[in-house]
Design goal:
- The complex is a heterodimer of chains A (106) and B (168).
- With 106 residues, chain A is mainly alpha-helical.
- Chain A is built from 3 helices and no strands.
- In chain A, helix 1 runs antiparallel to helix 2 and helix 2 runs antiparallel to helix 3.
- By secondary structure, chain B is mainly α.
- Chain B is built from 6 helices and no strands.
- Classes of the chains: A mainly alpha (106), B mainly alpha (168).
- Chains A and B meet through helix 1, helix 2 and helix 3 of A and helix 1, helix 2, helix 3, helix 4 and helix 5 of B.
């Protein structure tokens, strides 16, 4: 499996996440598309970690998988705080529409 | 076409297809379920790359905890296809889609002729993703970020409780 295939797959998932963030109005769906982008980056990191094959050092490239582990840690913490904010938003305005937040301007 | 390639293409089509359904679906509960399918497809890719620890952690943490949290919040707010705010502005719909698609085009074109073109990945083997090697690395070289991540979780928990406290 050449590395290019994994690069294109991760890019496709990332760009689908970007399209979701730009076009959807529901705050929860936007948040889920951010998680999709994070997962695309995780997939690319794991693919690159398997690219380095060295006979002398069998665990070359495992730094990338540790990094993916920490990305998952950060994503879990971010989801908990983000969903708390969305629940507070819903409690105040009874809607999760992000266009509603334009009213903060005036 | 051996079994690895067949599995790779099947999992890729499943991941990209369910990701598109996440963005395009009207019902938010359907979006969450499609995202869970996407996470399972990505975990399948991790297993193909012999990253066993990350495959299991991906399923447990992402599909098992984070998506269930999303589902709780959606059920709490009782969101369904009727109450879903739809983007009526055609400019934003077309502009967003064209922006994402042109980003994909630009990145694919930029990475077409790089030095890593055609370099093969070692699937089905290798000891990089085994939990023993990752655990050794995590507790020797990366023990400081590991401990700091526990402080991060503590602050996230306190932050979530403080943010969602009721008045009085």
């Amino acid at each position: 499996m050449p590395i290019n295939y994994y690069i294109f797959l991760a890019l496709a998932l990332f760009c689908i996440g970007i399209i979701g963030v730009l076009t959807r109005r529901n705050a929860i769906i936007i948040f889920m598309c951010i998680e999709l982008m994070l997962n695309a980056a995780n997939l690319l990191l794991v693919a690159f970690s398997k690219m380095q094959v060295d006979v002398n050092q069998p665990t070359a490239g495992s730094d990338a998988q540790i990094f993916v582990f920490f990305i998952m840690v950060v994503a879990a913490a971010e989801v908990s705080v983000g969903l708390a904010i969305i629940v507070m938003l819903y409690r105040n305005i009874h809607s999760v529409d992000v266009n509603f937040l334009n009213r903060l301007k005036n | 076409m051996n079994i690895t390639q067949v599995l790779f293409w099947f999992l890729s089509v499943l991941a990209v297809g369910s990701a598109m359904m996440v963005v395009a679906s009207k019902n938010p509960v359907h979006s969450i379920l499609f995202l869970i399918i996407t996470f399972f497809a990505i975990s399948g890719h991790y297993i193909l790359l012999n990253a066993q620890f990350l495959a299991i952690v991906n399923i447990i943490v992402y599909a098992g905890a984070i998506m269930v949290l999303f589902l709780f919040v959606v059920m709490l707010m009782n969101l369904n296809a009727e109450s879903e705010p739809s983007q009526k502005n055609k400019y934003i719909l077309y502009g967003g889609t064209i922006a994402g698609a042109s980003l994909l085009l630009v990145l694919v074109a930029a990475l077409k002729q790089t030095a890593t073109t055609g370099q093969m990945i070692q699937t089905n083997g290798g000891s990089v993703g085994l939990i023993e090697n990752l655990g050794k690395l995590l507790f020797t070289d990366y023990v400081f970020p590991f401990e700091i991540s526990s402080v991060l979780f503590l602050s996230a928990m306190i932050g979530a409780v403080v943010v969602s406290k009721r008045e009085g």
